[in-house]
Amino acid sequence: MTRSRFETPEWHAAVGRMMSADSAEQVGEALSDALGQVVTYDGTCLLLFRNDAPPGVLHRSLSPDDERHYLMRYLAGPYLLDPLYQLALRADKPDMCRFRDAIPDRFHSSEYYHRYCEQTHLRDEMDFFVDVAGGGTLALVVARHKRMFSKAELARLELVEPVVRAAMQRIWEKWRGGGSDAGADADIHRRLTECFENFGHDVLTRREREITQLLLRGHSTKSVARELDIAPGTVMVHKRNLFSKLGITSQFELFSRFIEELPRR
């Protein structure tokens, strides 16, 4: 008789290591091994998101290329435009979700996607969330490059969600107990956030800045209208005005202007 993946010695050994591990790194390695018994994936990354600091990295199992593309460039500022970052900080977020189901409707057409996400070569991603003390949220990214997760694989990930989230909580407790500090450079986050929130403040109205922020995050005109509860036609008028005031003609130029602003802060 064929055994299920949850009847293999490797699965039980990985779960046992999660329970007995003495450090955050050991729990993270055991969690990665356990997930590897559930689905095939190309890398994991456990991030701590907070309102007052850049993302902290508690554990990752990434190749050197993935670490360079996914983490180093991401932590330099693009995380502010990341739907995962936005979702993690929401009070009504799910315990887990598929990244493709949580993105704005024009995300794959956004310059953020083309300049950052495309470079990571991720084909699919499942994310798990855990709220932790101090107002932060842990987000575990389980990423795949070559093909989408199948229905059976998604079902298995949903089945192990309680185990995954318990391990994430345990990593947090070990990591925090070891004296690690994800908010060491809160000043950088403050300056990046101010740059994003005040982009165009010298020429744009408050409403135009709100629309600019949503456009940068990959929302279409209709999606912006829904988010702000205004008519799509009104959004188009504001969009024409803000483009004119900034001296640009496309969202490509809008993104480029924003990126140019970051090093000045």
Task: Describe the protein's topology.
Blueprint: H1 9-20, H2 24-38, E1 43-50, E2 53-61, H3 64-75, H4 83-88, E3 96-98, H5 111-120, E4 124-132, E5 136-144, H6 151-159, H7 161-177, H8 186-198, H9 206-216, H10 221-228, H11 232-246, H12 251-261
Antiparallel strand pairs: 1-2, 1-5, 3-4, 4-5
Can you describe this structure?
- This protein has helices at residues 9-20, 24-38, 64-75, 83-88, 111-120, 151-159, 161-177, 186-198, 206-216, 221-228, 232-246, 251-261, and strands at 43-50, 53-61, 96-98, 124-132, 136-144.
- By secondary structure, it is of the alpha+beta class.
- It folds into 2 domains: 5-177, Beta-Lactamase; 199-264, Arc Repressor Mutant, subunit A (Orthogonal Bundle).
- The protein has a 5-stranded antiparallel beta sheet.
- It is elongated, with a radius of gyration of 20 Å.
Supply the key terms.
265 residues; alpha+beta; Beta-Lactamase; Arc Repressor Mutant, subunit A; 5-stranded antiparallel sheet; 12 helices; 5 strands; 14% strand
Instruction: Classify the secondary structure makeup into a structural class.
Output: alpha+beta
CATH class of the largest domain: Alpha Beta
Rg on CA atoms, Å: 20 Å
What is the percentage of strand-forming residues? 5-15%
- Mean model confidence by pLDDT: 87
CATH topology grouping of the largest domain: Beta-Lactamase
Whole-number total of structural domains: 2
CATH superfamily of the largest domain: Transcription factor LuxR-like, autoinducer-binding domain
Helix content: 40-55%
